Amino acid sequence: MNNKIRFGIMSCASIVPRFVRGLELCGLGEADAIASRSLEKARKTAEELNIPRVYGSYDELLEDDTIEAVYIPLINSLHAQWAERSLAAGKHVIMEKPFVLHEEQAVRLAQLAEEKGLFITEAVKTPFLPVFADIRKLLDNRSLGEIRFMHFRQSYTGGSYIAGWNTEKETGGGVLYANEAYFFHMTEFLAGRIISCSGSASFGPSVEDQCSLTAVTENNVLSSFFVSSKVLFQNGLTIYLDHGRIEVPDFWKASEAFVYEDDELKEHISYPCRYEFRYQLEHYCSLIRDGRTQSPVTPVSNSGRYIGMCEELYRQWEKDRL
């Protein structure tokens, strides 16, 4: 008997193949339908990914009673409205980053999901990667002492992140909204609740193209984040402890890490995986089957709080530019 959760996908965004392959690997869900405003594009993507049904509108997808859950990788400004429509249609929701653009929208969606007994989450893969499970164990046993400082670095100068709607304020573009989830979720996953956050940004014609953030956690850990779409630097995460450091290349999709005691390499953590989506989807699909409405790892309250921090940063940056 096939007990897999039947997913419908809204849009043919470039991230969709990774989601579908992750579903296949996790074994708990399957992509049953895909919708696009272009029926031709939906058909092409469905053929490439072996998705059985296609729709030429998102509303048609939501009218499909066989679909249990939806994956929403739409442009940022459309997240809140289509998540609300999906919940109203009785579908569980897994939504791409950023979850929403305003904290009040996150509160509303959490309330609606709870009322309807439906699951909802922001799709954040990093806390579920095996590399970070090992790192958490290392931090917990304190073999290298206490964690003191973390430095996140993310940069790109090509691709969809520097073109189209990603460069427009009205659609939720800019490097902060594109990348904030990784920084905030992982800072708290590794070092405790954030108690303060500040930052600076440089701007292109419409949105910020570089920013730097600094956060302090309840455990007195300082965490910094540099992101740029103008220049490339050595992407990754460095975690500094009393007696060493941990280097995590490409932390948002980490497949390895290097553990140093003082300045000597002591351990190489390695978990190669082509489709890292599988780990978060194992977690989310299990919660859906258990009748849960939230993830204890990526609760909507956290996603909303992080967006609230972003809103405050944007207000300050707008004030500074006047």
Describe this structure in words.
The chain has 322 residues and is of the alpha/beta class. It has two domains: 5-123, Rossmann fold, CATH 3.40.50; 126-275, Dihydrodipicolinate Reductase, domain 2. The protein has nine helices and 14 strands. It has helices at residues 16-26, 39-49, 58-62, 79-88, 103-116, 130-141, 175-191, 277-289, 300-321; strands at 5-10, 29-35, 53-55, 69-72, 92-95, 120-122, 147-155, 194-203, 208-217, 222-228, 236-241, 244-249, 256-261, 264-270. The strands form two sheets. The protein has an eight-stranded mixed β-sheet, covered by helices on one side. A six-stranded parallel β-sheet has the order 3-2-1-4-5-6, with helices on both faces. β9 and β10 (222-228) form a beta hairpin. α1 packs across α8 (277-289) and α5 packs antiparallel against α9. The longest helix has 22 residues, at 300-321. The N and C termini lie far apart (62 Å). The mean pLDDT is 96.
Helical residue percent band = 25-40%
> Which percent range describes the beta-strand content?
25-35%
CATH class of the largest domain: Alpha Beta
Low-pLDDT runs of 5+ residues are none
Structural class: alpha/beta
| Number of β-strand runs | 14
Overall pLDDT confidence = 96
SSE pattern, N- to C-terminal: EHEHEHEHEHEHEHEEEEEEEHH
Q: CATH homologous superfamily of the largest domain - what is it?
A: Dihydrodipicolinate Reductase, domain 2
Shape: globular
Number of domains: 2
Distance between the termini: 62 Å
- Spatial ordering of strands, largest sheet: 8-9-10-7-11-12-13-14
CATH architecture of the largest domain: 2-Layer Sandwich
Count of helix runs: 9
